[in-house]
Design goal:
By secondary structure, this protein is α+β, with helices and mostly antiparallel strands. It contains three helices and two strands.
Length: 93
């Protein structure tokens, strides 16, 4: 049951991320590198980095894809994850 719910949640994240990514693909990006701690997931790392100007689901999806992560809930402590977020443009503050 837990695996089924996780798969459903990841499907929603990936679907939402795909739609958002296609709309905003030209915005400048800022790169962050985060070292995973025990118990971290891609979601928890991205949540620490994003601002209210970012779409968390999009950032999670892009991070999973760019880092070639098979299981976003099973990061190894010390694993470095690269996260890209959109640069805040003038007038968006």
């Amino acid at each position: 049951m837990k695996i089924g719910l996780l798969c459903l949640a990841l499907t929603a994240v990936i679907g939402s991320g795909t739609a958002s990514l296609m709309q905003n693909h030209n915005a400048p990006m800022i790169e962050y590198r985060a070292e995973a701690q025990a118990g971290d997931s891609v979601w928890s790392i991205c949540k620490r980095i994003v601002t209210n100007k970012d779409n968390l689901q999009e950032v999670v999806w892009r991070t999973i894809e760019e880092n070639h992560i098979q299981d976003p809930t099973e990061l190894q402590p010390g694993q470095v994850i690269v996260v890209h977020v959109r640069e805040i443009q003038e007038g968006q503050k």
